[in-house]
Input
Amino acid sequence: MEMPFHLKTLPSEALDILRFFAEHNENVAHTNAMIDGTGLNERRFGVALRRLVTKGYLIMDGYQTYRLSDNGRRAVDDLAAYDESEPEAAQAANESRIITRRLVLVVPRTLLSGQPTNVFVGFDEPEDTEYIEEPLNLLIRMQVVNSSEDINPNKDSAMLLDNKAARQVFEIIAGAYTKLRLRCFVYQIENEEDAPTMAGGMYVDLNIAATPESVDRSLTAYGVDVQFMVRS
Output
């Protein structure tokens, strides 16, 4: 039996929630009960819950309480029928794992006020145990506190991350200050219909010089581990 198309459009975490209701005695459940019953962390659960609400399968029934709609009950029944006919396929489709990649930010020790400066953002090569079969769809967001007033302090860039080292270049301009804070956040886009989920990030504080002779242009690398969810 092939999985119905309307279920194929749902992430596996949303299917976990529907499976929870298949074993639940009522059509209403609190979010805490759903999280405990599915074993999902709060981030993954929140994304899946929003998808089910958007699709009209779940309806808010009170504070942190949700009820299955008529379409939701039919989806639960359809999924139960599929799982019964294809138990091995259902288990394989539901498996996922967390991988860790090293996010690296490379910047000069000192920035020159009012002058463009390149900032390098990227990822080291993964460990053997962190290899992935499909590239990760990421959004890299750079925020600059005390940037030049004539530029946008927020910069977004898309990245497809595979099993190789990767980097991108951002251009920033420091304002007429003595310090600048550079924030870098990484978001994973699991589905175009859902909001990106934060995987991690970091910030660094840099000195700003007013004259070229006061600038130290030597580069410094900062790193932090970020985690992504991938399908097995």
Remarks:
- The chain has two domains: 5-94, 97-231.
- The longest strand covers residues 96-108.
- The chain has six helices and twelve strands.
- Residues 5-94 form a domain with the Arc Repressor Mutant, subunit A fold (CATH 1.10.10.10).
